[in-house]
Amino acid sequence: MKKVFLLATMLLGWGVTFAQSDDPVIMTIAGTPVNRSEFEYSYNKNNAEGVIDKKSVKEYVDLFVNYKLKVQAALDAHLDTLSSFKEEFLTYRDQQVRPSFATDEAMEKEARNVYDATYNQIGPDGQAQASIILLSLSPDASLAEQNRQKTRIDSIYSALLAGADFAELARKHSEDQGTAQRGGMMPPVTRSQLQEDMASQVFALKDGEMSKPFLLPMGYLIVKMNQHRFLRPYEEERVDIMKWMESHNLRDAVAERRVKELAAEKLGLKDSIENLNASQKAQVDAEVKNLLDQRTKELSATDSDMRNLIREYHDGLLLYEISNRNVWEKASNDEAGLRNFFNKNKKRYNWDKPRYKGMAYHVKNEADKKAVAKCVKGLAFDQWADKLRTTFNADSVIRIRVEKGIFKEGDNAVIDKMVFKKDTTLTPMKDYPIDAVFGKLLKKGPESYEDVRGLVTADYQEEMEKAWVNELRKRYTVVVNNDVLDTVNKHN
Q: Which of 37, 139, 240, 439 gives 20 to 30 Å between its CA and that of 324?
């Protein structure tokens, strides 16, 4: 496995040997050369049509360098050796590479298999697209009931012979609910899908022909053959089969089977994949990994888009992990840091209008109105919800309804009326007719970072990232080849 993953982590190095004369080094970061094709791939992808904040090539250099520095830091921290990283990266890489095993020859073979299986299912008689009218009989039907249904079916048959519409009579008289609403139309069926006594009647009819009434255990029937459908020769069905395979994502299944077959062949196993024992299947799975590694190397040497796509995902996983550790999660969990950052930057979070930090609540009686306020008085704001739930709504009887938060004018009708003194008409909540508020009015701004935690966290993360990037810039050497930079998207 170590050998397998080593190959994957050498992706960056492959770009160095690939068409060196046509893909010059555009910059060197921490001693690692970066080829022009990689920079172009990243630049063009992030500055495509429709991107609002498009950058010039020179403006993009700093963003790209910062990205690569973070990836280098992740590599130096050996994050690429984590089992979670290896598993996720190889899963994605294999998803990109595996379809290449679905060659034209393999797809043709599968299409032929689909055709043969369909032909065997349909059989030489093809499919029948028929319509029926059924007058049902129970197994213990009396002679009188049998005669009544026989009279009815004969009457319907006479009407059909006289030119009545089959579909109309089926909707009106047929007692098979599944087909009656469709004018008697059955789904296409093969001979094997029908009981033999039914099949003999249906498949004896020619297109457009109608049977006489006949009796089966289920009742009296009249069948009209709308159309026999036969499978055309493979060459005529091939295009449709290929389209069907693509629409049902069978290419991946074909590729999956083909790479396993190749692995089995390489191991000298003669049985089909389905007939291998557990030990042999494990050997095949290991060899499949080797084949995927080799195919990755081949594709990366000849297909720059594939090489860059795989590298992008490889580096993106590392970037996420290192950024989460050094910035995102670190900042989110640093309560002391968030508090200090807020205290140093309070003016940044001042409000243009007052906010109400508290709750609007609705109760059934005056006693609970007072009890709610008393319940949370003196508690920290973030403890209110649990205290109210355990005190008033712990069992199946919901005594109060509460909206808690930091409200500006217009956020809540009850607070608008009772706190901001707006001329608002309140509609009493059903079963909770008494409205009340509890909390405090914050006129200038939040009283703690918890009141604007999301904003403070985002700003604190941004500050930490800037400091981190500055540290990386000092730690690693970056050399940009401006002559090559000037040729980005300007070469053949």
A: 37
259 φψ region: left (φ > 0), alpha (ψ -120 to 50), beta (else): alpha
Q: Which of 411, 357, 346, 398 is nearest to 380 (CA)?
A: 357
**What Cα–Cα distance (Å) separates residue 423 from each residue in 44, 413, 418, 426?**
55, 10, 10, 10
Angstrom CA distances, 60 to 55, 74, 316, stand at 6, 22, 17
Residue 350: Cβ-neighbour burial (10 angstroms; 0-12, 13-18, 19+):
exposed
Work out whether strand 189-190 and strand 127-136 pair parallel, antiparallel, or are unpaired.
antiparallel
Q: How high is the pLDDT of residue 231?
A: 87
- Bridge partners of 407? 356
Across the 492 residues of the chain, what is the mean pLDDT of every consecutive 10-residue run?
Answer: 32 38 91 95 92 92 97 97 96 94 90 91 89 94 93 96 95 93 93 90 94 94 93 92 90 91 93 92 95 95 92 96 96 96 95 95 94 95 94 88 96 96 92 96 93 96 97 97 96 84
pLDDT one-digit tens code per residue, 42-52: 999 999 888 88
| pTM of the model as a whole | 0.69
List pLDDT tens digits, range 338-385: 999 999 999 999 999 999 999 999 999 999 999 999 999 999 999 999
